[in-house]
Amino acid sequence: MRLTACGEAKARIKTLIKSKAETLLMRGPESIEHFFSPQTVAVIGASDHKGSIGHTIFENMKKAQIKALFPVNPKHATIQGIRAYPTVRETSGQIDLAVIVVPSHAVPSTLEECMQHKVKAVIIVSAGFSETGERDNTRKISELIGKYPSTRVMGPNCVGVLNSHNKVDTTFFERSRMKEPKKGTLSFISQSGALGSMILDWIATQQFGINKFASYGNAMDVDESDLLEYFGRDKNTKVIAMYLEGAKEGRKFYETAKKISRKKPIIVLKGGRHDETSMATASHTGSMAGASKVYDAAFKQAGIIEADDILDLFSIAKMLEREPLPKGNRVQIITNGGGFGIVTADQMLMNGLALAKISHQTAARLYKQMPTATISNPMDLIGDADVERYLNAIKAAHNDQNVDIIVVLVLFNLPSLELGKLMGLAKPHGKITKPIMVIAIGSEFTQKYLEKMEHEGFTTFNYPSIVAKALKEVVAYSEYLKKN
Fold this sequence. Notes:
This protein is α/β, with parallel strands linked by helices. The protein is 40% helix and 17% strand.
């Protein structure tokens, strides 16, 4: 009898352990892949009405590289020329991802239908839940998430995801009104869909791209930590940028970030850093921003780079995506305009960086190559500098052990800089071990040639203050990695 009871107990424990392991696997980082790389997608609330959210989402998803797309709407036989289905149950086969865009009162029943149909991932675009103080439907959604753990849920009150590689796009951003970002290695997590749309539009005008984007809204299931864990493992993600108002689970976020930041840089723009704005976050995504000083300390300990504004966020991200980490904080400035060099040097020093002092041997070689230049820091190649002079200076600084970072300033409107030869100023691929930034300020003519230098492999910016600020954070991150 005792042996039988003991065996039964062991069997129950074994079953419980197996069940828990299966649940963890269902809800692990691998489960997030269904949002970004589904093969079959249903848009519930898809519409023929131009200007509606359901119409835009379905139109955007028609460009996705997937096997099947199903519009679900009981009021229509076809939507945008494709056969429509009254419910998700009546679509054929397994659905990897469902996007729900129906009135808030209909969301719980629609979600339950998806879960009963064993849909792997659901994005609830619909708003009107905890962010507005609504409790009844919010509670129902929470209960369903607990009852059906194998279906991952993003939202509600979000725009979902964008994957630049397979064109999966669940956002309701009108593509005719904004540019599409290029492919890149930066993945962006945003608690705010509106801010995310603005940033995606802006990034499309820049010379770097997006890998994946996620707006997760009220985070009733999938939260910032889940996405951080996923991007930490994602082979196409090199840098992670985030807009965060408040972490759903502070300890989970801290532990996840601390682990990921050792492998990939994480840059966070924190919303609600002041008492007046922290209250606004509660009515935005239903989250509390928390004490700013607590977040600042947690970010620092976890190796997170904190940005002060949107421009700061993506200047740091661009630098980390395209350049090697610096070994120190010693900056060599190279310019063909003396005043420009001095202003830049001031910005570097104001941000805690140091001006490099090149070795006597390097200085002697450069004096021989260009006797009219001022070989110091800033290194002034003077107004008649040509491409060859710039190349000599950059190579010398790169080979000098006293230099950690190279900042190149270019006045494109000086006549000696032969624009036909400018593309000879190309950054050699695979041979660069120090970050090299190019800065130029000017009108359309300057921007045109700055963009050409970007195409040649250089990382370019318009203002020394932006570069100095970003370099300060990049150097601090490099130091963090050395100590951890």
